[in-house]
Amino acid sequence: MPGKSLADDRKAERIGAAPRLHTRVLSILRRRIRDGGVARDARLLESPLARELGVSRAPVRQALIALEAEGLVRRSGGRGFLVEEVESTTSSGTDDHAAVTLDSRQSWQPIYDTVEKAIVERISVASWRIVEVDLARHFGVSRTVAREVMARLHQRGLVKRDDKSRWSAPALTADYIAELYEMRWTLEPLALTKASEHAPRALLLRLHENIQGAAGRASALTGGELDALEAELHVELLGYCGNATLIEALRRYQSLLVAHTFLYAASSTQFPSEPFLPEHMKIVERLVASDVHGAAQALMQHLKAACERAIARVGIIARDLEVSDLSYMHRLG
Q: What residues does each domain of the chain span?
């Protein structure tokens, strides 16, 4: 769906010192609809909006429900919400934002996926320096666009920035993977405990059904399907914790979630079926039974086991993977 980046929208409007994430999303979408940037009957879907704004689906869902209460959107008989006709508040002539719609691809989006994939493939082998000016030149885009790509990669936890403003993508060494997972098994059980107070039961039942269905065809699941199951638990469900600062911290340490599709595909012969499926089921079954403490403990155990598997997967890939040079990525060490 069309629109500006969340970073641009944050600059464009002041909505308080520390607004909740769904409040920021609501403000952005409300303004775009009222400015006439979204046509009547345009369909707003959670997942595309979440990807565009760089957030989880939970705050988008809350924002859409609030927009419905305001009469700006209505539920579709099929999927998502449809925009109602509203009186435009856009001034004529000079407002470039009026031409922006939520389903157009932004200037950074066409190259983001390519860069993300290139990084994910290469960090199994080594650490890399990424140079903004070379990135811009390689794809024929402005420095502003290249900077936005790097900012979003940083938000996803795939790259770091040093005190000299240089970007790097750290290698997935065993020590680094262990550090990431240690932070996850420290923070995610807390987020799960908080989320259990707000997550709709329908979501828990959906997770249970999806895991059960996946377990029935475990050996045939694709990397993308496994990735979606991981995101349902670790991103969508935890997004209900109600603590935007906690979610932002988690996103940094969940960087391997971005890499999972590649890791699953590249090490598909390591396990006859994906071991996380019964572990996820144990977590969800405890939540359905209102055993929140048991669910949090099961999540911690799952992440500790997943850490060992991730180290093993990356070790297998690093032994055999050959990667070509890219003009904007330079091997470190």
A: 6-99, 109-171, 174-320
Please enumerate in sequence order all residues whose Cβ is within 8 A of that of 142, keeping only pairs 6 or more positions apart, or say none.
107, 136
Q: Which CATH architecture best describes the domain 109-171?
A: Orthogonal Bundle (1.10)
Q: Report the predicted TM-score, pTM, of the whole model to 2 decimal places.
A: 0.62
pLDDT tens for residues 34-56? 877 777 778 888 888 887 777 77
DSSP-derived secondary structure for 150-176: HHHHHHTTS-EE-TT--EEE----HHH
Q: What is the CATH number of domain 174-320?
A: 1.20.120.530
Q: What is the CA radius of gyration of the chain?
A: 21
Residue range 212-241, pLDDT digits in tens: 999 888 878 877 788 788 889 998 999 999
Dig out the tokens for 70 from the structure: 């305001």
Q: Could you give the maximum distance between any two Cα atoms of the chain, in Å?
A: 61
Class of domain 6-99: mainly alpha
Give the alpha-carbon dihedral of 126, 131, 132, 137, to 10 degrees. -110
- Residue 212, φ and ψ in degrees, nearest 5: -60, -45
Q: Cα(62)–Cα(70) distance, rounded to whole angstroms?
A: 13
